[in-house]
Amino acid sequence: MPTVGALGDDMMRFGLLGPLVVHDGTALRPVSGLKVRVLLAALLLQANRVVSKDALKEAMWGDELPSSVEASFANHATRLRRLLAPAGEERLLTVAPGYQLLVAEGALDVEVFETRVRAACLAHQAGDWATVLAESRAALALWRGAPLADLVPYRDQPGPSLRIHQLDQLRLQVREWAFDAELHLGNHGEILTDLAVLAAENPLREELHRQLMLALHRTGRQAEAFEVFHALRRSLVDELGTEPGPAVRRAYQELLDGEQPPAPPVPAPAPRPPYQLPSSVPEFTGREEETAAAVAALRREVGAPLRPVVISGMGGIGKTALAVRVARLVQEDFPDGTLYADLRGFSGGGPRSAHDLLARFLDDLGARPASLPDDTDDRAALFRSAIADRRVLLVLDNARDAAQVAPLLPPQGPGAALITSRQLLAELPGVEMMALHPLGPEEQLTLLSRLCGADRIAHEPAALADILAACGGLPLALRIVGGRLSSRPSWPLALLAERLAPDRGRLQALSMGAVAVRHTFDMSYQAIRDSGNAAEREAARAFRLLGLWKPHLFTTQSAAALLGADEYDASAALELLVDANLVHSPAPGRYALHDLLGEYAAQRAAEEEPADGREAATVRMLVWYARAVSTACAVASHETQSPPPLDAPAGPALPVFAEDADAIEWTKRELPAIRESLTRAGEAGRSDLAWRLAAGLFGYATTHWWTGEWDACLRQAMEIAVAHGDTLGQAWLHRRTAVAHGMAYRNEACLEHLTLALAFFTDTGDVLAQASILGNMASLYVQLGDARQGLVHAERSHELYRRTSSPRSEALALSRIADAQAMVGEHADAVANYEKVVAALREQRHGVFLATTLTNLGDVRRQLGDREGALEAQREALAIRRRMDDLGGTADCLAFMAGTYQHFGEWGDARSCWEQCLELGLRHGMAQHIEASRAGLAGLPTLPAPTPPQ
After folding, report:
1. CATH: 3.90.1150.200, 1.10.10.10, 1.10.3720.10, 1.10.150.170. Which one for 519-606?
2. Which residue has better confidence, 696 or 218?
């Protein structure tokens, strides 16, 4: 049922228990016009439900509708909408076939009255007479007179008349319950007058007469009590032809027997408020930001509603320790007590039921009636009544899910709830979410120091770093490690670090006594594996398979490949695992396993998944990465020829890249997974996948060749290809390895691999591959200073490319011709060709190639004496390199710009460029640029020192 929101001081309230009233939080709002008032009343009697236009017209005009009813109705509805939305908040909605008035919970007196009536009824059934009296009085206080007293014609219509009669009967019933409570509490004389009046107004109401008889008898007025009985009997016989019922006859018998009234109960001394928090953790470390946020949420301004605070996170992350710390800090804000319960949502014995906990909480609060209702909802209603006006904090620890928690939450009021769970519990209404993450490096070090002493861990920094890495910031793991070190003073840290290595059974080592990280993980995993929910069981399978992938980083697409599912199902499983805090989502569409959880998932896969299933999942992942890397390479390099496609079934969709920078960034981010894929492909004997992965890194290497990552992948893939006799793979790897050597100025090795690759592709008749390799040879000869050979090979490459009708390839060949022309001094021809290439590349949106060509164009213009043209081209190239985060290319551009400034005698600007280039080289280990920058700086003239001011 839709509502306008939680009730606050400024919420619009409505009254039907008396004349119709509207209160906007500060004052009554007049509702002028009889028809508008009737329209509002009809909607309020069906609050939050759709009322048809026909029913509303009948309420306003009865059977005699005017001829202009449509226009008149629309006008009244518009007036009412304006009245109800003073701040633009939409309350009156047009919903076919009529209108719907949204009313917040607790904003309509009829709804509040009926809620109090239900609470009084449950308390009456349970014999909780103090609660009966409190709830009855609160319910009756809402009445200001006859319902809708100012709308007499409308009240007489069948629908409103029936509803008003129901409310009147409920009101009378509540008054009877209140009298019952007064009688049980010994307040006989206080109710005599009201009882006598009400019994006279209802001469056939047996319960009122029974109560009046008892009140008279217990105040010593036995004769009047007998008269009440006989008057009731005459009325019943004369009017209905029946005798009084059993309850009245029992009261009459009490009169005959002269029983003394029961003594009023002696009020028990006020019990001490319950305070049930477990012991706090003395070594509690960090979490300052989370602690402050939780404390602030539980210390709202007086009158402001307190929303439940949910602390969620993976097992062992420290949720309970934080909750206990926060609860102790706010203890004085909840003087009526703190209730604590471990809900055992994730434990071997199964979760505790809200049904049983409600009984315990009522007992703890001293509000448990003699007889508890059997229905959980009825117990929850009693609990909410008992806690409604108390400033009590509930700490509900280790909740399984929202269904377990919901019946235990306090009503909106001065009480509050602090909940911990491995589930997010986002479906609970109006909660404040607080997700815990692993401790940071400083917090980890501080906690371990507190557990086993700072001196103990100060002398073995390398072993300490390994131990902290093995614990992954998980407080539980750090506590186990700290306990082991503290109880084994002779152990060097290196011994424990060795036992905690991932390949040595780290999870088995992270245990001490009954406390074990694996056991904590078991509780989370088994809860979904053994669930009656099919989606949770499928998520458990997904969790196991995710453990097969060591980098533990996924997108929806890569996870779908591993799971053998479509993206929709993979996403559903991943999101369920996120909700269960078995997987976290560091960014939209990206997922990761904590390192320890990843190791645990791998163990579960080994124990529960068949070997062929594990192998098939791994191969699906390798195939997906090989295809994804190839796609990224095609976009990043604009290469006209890619390796032949894989012969494998189609899998999930591959990533889509808008431009080369996106493809390069994706490859950079996924590099750990690509390296893992390469290794796993070799282990699986899949050379066809291994060499494609390495070859596909060409696009990434256009800007990151200097890191050495590509060289390492190419060497590894070549070893795999040679071991499996994969000649096609070796040919492509020779081709790519040559490019890697050329980028690093390893010229002899570059020529050797180019020659081997050219021989293979010549034998197979692959013209496009020959053109590419001849072009690379042209670049190599120019790099060696042999411009004539460079020009010969560039022209041969250009001729072969023309046969393939590839504009991009022709541009590449033309740029190599220009390189050679520039070297032999044909500067004007070189500029003309470079400008053609630049124009073509702007259309193709090829950032890397464009930046390289602009750099070369700038250098030739420098040699022609065109300072402005040279710097214009080089500045544009520098901007492209920086936008693409191409550190090696940026250093190249700075070096060329330094040469341009130096050529024109602008020593200060030249020095600035060389210094920036040197800084990049030193920061990222680019030896070639370090050497060139130092030589460039050494070649600059020494400027005279500035003359000091006189």
Report:
1. 1.10.10.10
2. 696
Between the CA atoms of 166, 167, 169 and 173, what dihedral angle is there, to the nearest 10 degrees?
130
554 close to 564: Cβ distance less than 8 angstroms: no
Q: C-alpha angle 443/446/447, rounded to 5°?
A: 85
What kind and span of H or E run contains 14?
Answer: strand 13-15
Rg of the chain over Cα atoms, rounded to whole angstroms, equals 41
Give pLDDT tens digits for 790-814: 888 988 988 888 877 666 677 778 8
The length of the chain is: 950
* The CA-based dihedral angle spanning residues 34, 38, 39, 41, taken in that order and rounded to the nearest 10 degrees: 140
Nearest to 640 by CA among 839, 809, 803: 809
Q: Which two tokens stand for residue 112?
A: 């509040």
Give the residue among 107, 109, 78 at the shortest CA–CA distance from 3.
Answer: 107
Pairing of strands 515-516, 511-512: antiparallel
Q: Is residue 718 a contact partner of residue 733, using CB atoms and an 8 Å limit?
A: yes
Mean predicted confidence (pLDDT) in 389-399: 93
Cis peptide before 97 (omega within 30 of 0): yes
Per-residue pLDDT of 715-727, as tens digits, reads 999 999 999 999 9
In sequence order, the β-bridge partners of residue 512 are: 515
Does the pLDDT value for residue 679 go beyond 90?
yes
- Note the helical H segments in 410-548: 441-452, 454-457, 461-471, 475-487, 493-499, 506-509, 517-529, 534-546
Mean pLDDT of the chain: 87
User: Domain 186-261: which topology?
Assistant: 1.25.40
Q: Give the torsion sign (CA, 499, 505, 507, 509).
A: negative
Say which residue the tokens 């090795």 belong to: 749
CA–CA dist 76, 78 (Å, integer): 5
Type of residue numbered 835: E
Tokens linked to 167: 């409310």
If you ran DSSP here, which 8-state letter would residue 27 be given? S
pLDDT of residue 893: 92
Asked if 854 and 874 touch (Cβ cutoff 8 Å), the reply is yes
Could you tell me if 414 and 306 are in contact, meaning their C-beta atoms sit under 8 angstroms apart?
Answer: yes
CATH 1.10.8.50 matches 13-115+145-158: no
SS3 418: strand
β-pairing, 393-399 vs 416-421, is parallel
CA distance 424 to 417: 15
CATH 3.40.50.300 is held by the domain 288-435: yes
Tell me the C-alpha to C-alpha distance, in Å, between residue 848 and each of 660, 831, 894, 920.
Answer: 8, 19, 16, 19
Residue pair 229/221 in contact by the 8 Å Cβ criterion: no
Tell me if 874 sits within 8 A of 897, measured CB to CB: yes
Q: In the structure, how many helices (H) and strands (E) does the chain have?
A: 44, 15
Q: How far apart are CA 351 and CA 34, in angstroms?
A: 57
End-to-end CA distance of the chain: 85
Identify the H or E element spanning 310. strand 309-312
Cα–Cα distance list, 778 to 637, 762, 785, 787, 818 (Å): 18, 17, 11, 8, 11
Q: Which of 637, 686, 688, 682 is nearest to 660 (CA)?
A: 637
Residue type, 309: V
Which tokens sit at 186?
A: 């010994």
H/E segment holding residue 397: strand 393-399
Burial status of residue 458 (CB atoms within 10 A of its CB: 0-12, 13-18, 19 or more): exposed
How distant, in Å, are the alpha carbons of 345, 706, 806 from that of 764? 66, 32, 20
Strand partners, 511: 516
Q: Is the pTM of this model over 0.70?
A: no
